[in-house]
Amino acid sequence: MNRVAFVAIASILTQRKVQLQSTGDSRHIHYKLKSREEHLADALLNEYDVIIVGGGATGAGVSLACANRGLKSIVLESQDYASGASSKSTKLVHGGVRYMQQVFQLSEKNRLEKLQLVAEALRERSNFLSMCSYLTQDFPTLIPCTNLFDLGYYYFGSLIYHCVYLYYQTGGHTFKPPRIVGKEEIQQHFKFAKCNYGVIYYDGQFNDARMVQELLVTSSLKGQNMANYVEVKGLLKNEQNKITGVQAFDKIGQKQFQIKGKCVVNATGGWADNLRLMDDPTVSKRIVSVAGSHLTMPQKYGSHQWGYLIPKTNDGRVLYLLPWLGNIIMGTTERKLDNAISDPTVSKEEYRWLLQSFCDEFAIDASEVAKDVKSKWCGVRPLVYQSNALSTKEVSRTHEIEVSKSGLVSVMGGKWTIFRLMGEQAVDKVQGLIGNNQKRLENLPKLVGDWTQFDNKKEIQDMMKMFNLPQTYAAYFLTTYGDRAYDVLKLVHEKPENKESLHPQFPHTVGEILYQIRYEQARKPEDILFRRTRLGFLDQNAIFNVYEKVFQIMAKELKWPEKFQKEFLKENFEYIRKLEF
Ligand SMILES: Cc1cc2nc3c(=O)[nH]c(=O)nc-3n(C[C@H](O)[C@H](O)[C@H](O)COP(=O)(O)OP(=O)(O)OC[C@H]3O[C@@H](n4cnc5c(N)ncnc54)[C@H](O)[C@@H]3O)c2cc1C
């Protein structure tokens, strides 16, 4: 039996095993997930078809595409999953109204390229939402208008955006057409709004870091491996200078080891040039790192249902105010960096610009608003450089897949919305290199545990009854973990101490943190505070309150030696302190 057939059958059996674990009620399946240590033990025994370097949106997309085509892969992530750009996005699943606008600008030289970019992303927008319904939603965004010329301009612009979507859509989630709204309706959502009318258009939204986690869980249940805190330090090559594996370093176990693979995919985002240079020191750099910052505000500054797009701020950039997990996020800026930095911080200038642009739009006092800022974060957008670009606004958001002579497949640029497409295209290249020809799936793969095909209200009510939860908490678990919510809550209810709440304003408990350590590879408090839960993005004061508790849970569960605990507590607390206002 050839290897591909073997992996495909193993993958089917793994899924079958999942089905067999179902309890009496066929809806509530127990998902048997491996620990980080089990994944690493597999890594030493296996020879992989594909080694994926980087555990962000791109790496997770490649992993899922491998799983769906019967290839055996491992994702190696040097920090935590989604700790790069993939947890720090604006959380939009979109075609990009800004690029649509550029298509019609007289000065625009790459009209066709921009249109293709929007069309491709709009098609993927539908795919994204239908693949992962429980983590995503469509939502209306208001473009405020102060005169009839603007109203006509933005309405027809949004209509063309919608028509491009209708023309290129190949299935998946459907979006409503744009519409014009009057002052009364606007005031119901934005009490500070000054405009008399506006245009509503629709896009998608999601929980980015959780999405990486859910994609990896799906891949893992389909037989793929993954380990965080494993840095790729070198590439192994044979006498013909072809890649045969990687030299890796486990930062938790402090061990150096080799992993064998037929092909390596470089999904390292802003760090892509490092791996390209490791492969061939003569290549020229292609990545431009552009930092983007956001602020989190309380809901009183916006709407819990509508987004608000300021189409032109004082420097010509757009600014979004978006409802997200009970708060409003405001962003983004664009600041060119010399290199990709692991944890870039929001600069004073960006902070001021964000606040001032918001206050100018609504004519409110910036010093008052500043007191209410709940969190701030900054991410690095990995753009692919074209020599004719004059500014970062002009560096294309398109993606490129490069195959080196030794067989390194580098996936560069792009955006979250098109992660699935980038994954499929990267695996097309991989197949060319390793001589496999299994076709892409005809139907869109659903995430494991997608319950939204069932009656949503009933699902939430069942969960409320079964675990004695308020409605908002039941909704939180189902929209965060999909069907795995039952496994999480069973662990919460296993012992009385697991029910202990971390913070009175959030649904997180000791049991949920234990689940994230055991089955989602959380290994540092920041993994829990920023990416498994989104506390750090929602309320930075809350993380100072819960930090020590989370640390203690991890120290006990992971059996950290006492000496190590002291050093680690200090090092990690300093990391968290850096975020203080
Ligand atoms: C401010 C901002 C807002 C954005 N908003 C949106 C949006 O609303 N919608 C949208 O569609 N897109 C958005 N994007 C773009 C999107 O977030 C990125 O395109 C996407 O997250 C990139 O994913 P990635 O996996 O390529 O990179 P990353 O998420 O950065 O992942 C790369 C990973 O590689 C790891 N790595 C690096 N070197 C090594 C090594 N040697 N060994 C192992 N691992 C390594 C890193 O630790 C990192 O985790 C936004 C980006 C930014 C910065």
UniProtKB/TrEMBL annotation:
It is an enzyme of class 1 (oxidoreductase). It comes from Paramecium tetraurelia. The keyword Flavoprotein applies. GO terms for cellular component: mitochondrion. Residues 456-563 form the Alpha-glycerophosphate oxidase C-terminal domain. Residues 49-416 form the FAD dependent oxidoreductase domain. Its EC number is 1.1.5.3. GO terms for molecular function: glycerol-3-phosphate dehydrogenase (quinone) activity. Its cofactor is FAD. This is glycerol-3-phosphate dehydrogenase. The keyword Flavoprotein applies. One of its GO terms (biological process) is glycerol-3-phosphate shuttle. Pfam families: DAO, DAO_C. Keywords: FAD, Flavoprotein, Oxidoreductase. Belongs to the FAD-dependent glycerol-3-phosphate dehydrogenase family.
